[in-house]
Amino acid sequence: MAEFLSPLLNLFPEGMQPIVLILIQALLIILLLTGAVAYLTLAERKVIGYMQVRIGPNRVGPRGVLQPLADMFKLVFKEIIVPSRANKFIFLASPIIILIAALVAWAVVPFDDGWVVADVNAGLLYVLAVGAAGVYGVILAGWASNSKYALLGGMRSAAHKIAYELAMGFALVGVLMASKSLNLQEIVRAQDGSILHWYWLPLLPMFLVYFISGVAETNRAPFDIAEGESEIVAGFHVEYSGMAFAIFMLAEYANMILISALTAIMFLGGWLSPFQGTFLDAAFAWVPGIFWMFAKVAILLFLFLWFRATFPRYRYDQIMRLGWKVFIPLTILWIVVEGVAVYFKLGPWFA
Amino acid sequence: MSFVKLLFFIFTSVSVLSAFRMVTTRNPVHAALYLILTFFSTALVWLLLEAEFLSIVLILVYVGAVMVMFLFVVMMLDINTALMREGFVRFLPIGAAVAVVMIVEMSLVLGPKLFGLDIYPQPVPKPADYSNTAELGGVLYTIYVYPFEIASVILLVAMVAAIMLTLRRRPGVKYQEAAAQVKVRREDRIRIVKMPVESRVQAMNKGEGA
After folding, report:
1. Taking burial as the number of CB atoms within 10 A of a residue's CB, which of A174, A246, A298, B69 is the most buried?
2. In Å, how far is B65's CA from the nearest CA of chain A?
């Protein structure tokens, strides 16, 4: 990626070049991500609309394509109301914490072979740690609002996020055992071969647990008890309005895209072509890897929207039972199975 | 001053300042937040030492899990700070004595004669393909395998003990038993009754009689 930018980089002194390069990459990712988030909200409303036999937004622009812009303008010009006796600093800082956590994880996500801002050795751990730090935004927003419903939302979310983080962590142990690396690029390279070499097959329970925990971790339906509008109005962000509220939404959708990208990297072969090892491989050799990556992310994002249109919200005790009594034992069991498979160097995956 | 040195001074001063504020602040939630900031900046200092695994695990375990639990508890407390400050003068001598002992101990251990570049030579920067995680794993599972496994078993026992100590069995609580619900078959819930078809005349007579 650095090659494209070299004429621009040469304008800067030698010592500044790496910093300028990183800034450009970060800006590119943030701009693309914001655009993706804006149109994901439109896609969500359209997809759910058609699933419920209605059309969805179609007033702003042709077929409603300018709807996200209209929403953005509305939110930017709305007043941010800070509740009386709320802790003002934490109240305004918590959406920013959530947003930072949602953005910094992208530093280690590879979009194509070598297309990554920071090629970190412990990338997998970094992603987990950053995701864990994002919990604070929700909890602190709930506490700082000085509102019963918000506090309840924050509490619920603290408990359920810890539960699903454990399941996610165990699922990633499986990926680590299979690829023998924490580096996200190495993990994708270890899945090279064909669609059957990708880790969704040998790690099928981990794949399902990781993706479902990801849905829970991003507070999406059917696990959106942090909001739970039928019980606690809108949960942790009930007191937020205007831009502060918009940042929560932005972070939620950015997290959805992040979870989809990580699932694609760890279980669906990242930028690898699905036609590898078949007779179609040569015919699709011209397609850049980043296209496959985006296609996989888009399919997983569609699943998020599909879940929301399909499933009713889980009850709180059911969420806890699913996390602690189903997912964690299942992943531990599969780690043992995988350990045996790795020991005997089974099949094409652990050879 | 190099860039790394500048970062070091920023992270260390943030961690010392936030540790200080954690002790002095009145609001328990603020104290927890300052503690989180301390962990965070300490993790960044470790990162400067090229201990990336330890640094990320510090954030993952302490910031991501332990402190969330802390906040969870602290947020639900209703602390009256006036009551807490009542015994300040009475406990001042004991507190001051403990503080003096701690300062003396730390100055004995952390004095300049035990640290410095002549005692600990500056670590050589590791090559680019150095993986802290792999190195640590290699050491933990070969040289230190017994202490490591024993420590983990002790932690496991402590965890089970903590759960057993806080486990209350309350009678009369209605839990949803998912296993029983899944096991239910049609025969347990409905009974199909076979009976002869009533003739029309009989049915009409019944209707009139009612």
Report:
1. A174
2. 7
